[in-house]
Every structure is written in C-alpha cells, then in structure tokens.
C-alpha cells in the first residue's frame, strides 16, 4: 500500500512539473469540408481532416492534429482540430488537408493543402474534389 501511495505521489509530482514548464496547452482550429462534384452517399463515408507542420521542406510533414468524421450528417461537414499551442512557431508553415473515403476507398481530397495559423481567419473552409480512380 505504501508503494502505491509513493507511486501516486511521484506521478503527481512529475505531472505538476510538466504543467509548470509550459506543458500541453490546447488550441482549436475550426472549419468545414464541402464537396465539389455533387452529392456523396453518406453510408460508409468517412472524412479525415489533418493539421500538418510543413515548415521543413527537407522533412516529411508532421501531423499536429487529426479528426475523423464518420458518416457526417450533411455537407459542408464541420470539424474542430485540437492541437498543442506550444507546437506552433511564429515562422512555421501549417496546412490543413481533407480526404473523403467511402467504404475505405479514397473518393475526394483537397487539391491544395489550405495554409492556416498564419494570422488569417480562424475558421477554415476546405473543398474536397473527386480523385482519379
């Protein structure tokens, strides 16, 4: 029992240390995904919206946040990406992209990743267009 209390105390100490040193601070990026190219069958549909750090051209993009919307009730479909405010640098480049799947198959995607977190609007509108099959 003493060991359990000691471990709980140690865990609390570690977590409080993280909080005082600028730990995770949530921030939100909200927006909508609309469909270009007509209606989409809702059954079996899933939208994946991703916030990426593309600051370094010599490295692959880093995923900062991701949300899955299963069978959204309507389009445009709203999303809210929760990311760590401390991960955002003033000189960084950040984009949002969307992909729409039906029964696991990619059907639509944003053609150009949408630049965000650069002082422009806090609400993002993304258009997903049909992909070649």
TrEMBL record:
Domain of life the protein comes from: Bacteria
Assigned keywords, A-Z: Signal
InterPro entries to which the protein is assigned, alphabetical: Lipoprotein_YbaY-like (IPR053196), Pilotin (IPR039366)
Range of residues in the leader sequence: 1-21
Annotated Pfam families: YscW (PF09619)
Record has Signal as a keyword: yes
Protein name stated in the entry: Lipoprotein
Native source organism of the sequence: Pseudogulbenkiania ferrooxidans 2002
């Amino acid at each position: 029992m003493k060991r359990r209390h000691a471990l709980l105390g140690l865990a609390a100490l570690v977590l409080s240390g993280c909080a005082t040193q600028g730990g995770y601070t949530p921030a939100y990026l909200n927006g909508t995904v609309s469909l270009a190219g007509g209606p989409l069958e809702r059954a079996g549909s899933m939208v994946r919206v991703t916030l990426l750090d593309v600051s370094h051209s010599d490295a692959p993009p880093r995923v900062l946040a991701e949300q899955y919307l299963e069978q959204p009730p309507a389009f445009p479909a709203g999303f809210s990406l929760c990311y760590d405010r401390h991960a955002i640098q003033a000189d960084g480049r950040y984009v949002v992209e969307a992909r729409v799947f039906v029964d696991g198959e990619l059907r639509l995607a944003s053609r150009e990743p949408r630049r965000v977190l650069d002082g422009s609007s806090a609400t993002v509108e993304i258009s997903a267009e049909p992909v070649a099959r």
